[in-house]
């Protein structure tokens, strides 16, 4: 019997010793340092960059096809036309009567590849409504994609191209968006990992 207790004592002593040694080893090993971005590859580095040059006519077709396909409908039927500015045409049904509207925006390509549309003019039938009210109405009544944010008080529409949901995790960034010179270019980022 004595040998059995002696054996169990040394076994328990050995387990406790192994636990203490393991803890001491883990404490003395230096922590791994998290590297800041220099070691990590961003989506931009892990993708093939494909430049795209287009014109207003082709982009008009693509935009309106996308609007139809995605079913971005609401109480206002609308279409987008690229001319010297971005023009939004719509029909608003009020008291069983259609009221035509036209909003004009000046586009600005941002360094991060997104696009800002600054409200330039507005025409809604013969009504004289504040721009912020109309943008708020559109924001509240439309089914807009998550990557399009209307900021009524600033009179802008922010189009986050980086967050646009495309197939196969492809991303699209705006490089230039000069409608007056018909100079429109994008970068298509196709992931390689």
Automatic annotation (TrEMBL):
<dbReference type="InterPro" id="IPR018672">
    <property type="entry name" value="DUF2140"/>
</dbReference>
<keyword id="KW-0472">Membrane</keyword>
<protein>
    <submittedName>
        <fullName>YpmS family protein</fullName>
    </submittedName>
</protein>
<feature type="transmembrane region" description="Helical">
    <location>
        <begin position="7"/>
        <end position="29"/>
    </location>
</feature>
<keyword id="KW-1133">Transmembrane helix</keyword>
<keyword id="KW-0812">Transmembrane</keyword>
<dbReference type="Pfam" id="PF09911">
    <property type="entry name" value="DUF2140"/>
</dbReference>
């Amino acid at each position: 019997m004595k040998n059995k207790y002696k054996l169990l004592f040394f076994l328990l002593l050995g387990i406790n010793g192994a636990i203490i040694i393991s803890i001491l080893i883990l404490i003395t090993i230096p922590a791994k340092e998290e590297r800041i971005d220099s070691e990590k590859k961003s989506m931009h580095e892990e993708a093939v960059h494909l430049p795209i040059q287009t014109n207003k006519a082709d982009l008009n077709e693509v935009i309106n096809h996308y609007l139809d396909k995605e079913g971005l409908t609401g109480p206002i039927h609308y279409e987008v036309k690229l001319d010297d500015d971005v023009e939004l045409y719509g029909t608003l049904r009020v008291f069983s009567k259609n009221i035509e509207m036209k909003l004009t925006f000046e586009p600005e390509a941002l360094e991060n590849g997104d696009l800002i549309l600054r409200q330039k003019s507005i025409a809604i039938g013969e009504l004289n409504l504040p721009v912020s009210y109309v943008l708020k109405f559109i924001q509240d009544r439309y089914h807009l994609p998550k990557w399009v944010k209307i900021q009524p008080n600033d009179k802008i529409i922010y189009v986050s191209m980086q967050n646009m949901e495309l197939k196969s995790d492809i991303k699209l960034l705006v490089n230039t968006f000069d409608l007056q010179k018909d100079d429109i270019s994008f970068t298509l980022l196709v992931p390689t990992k």
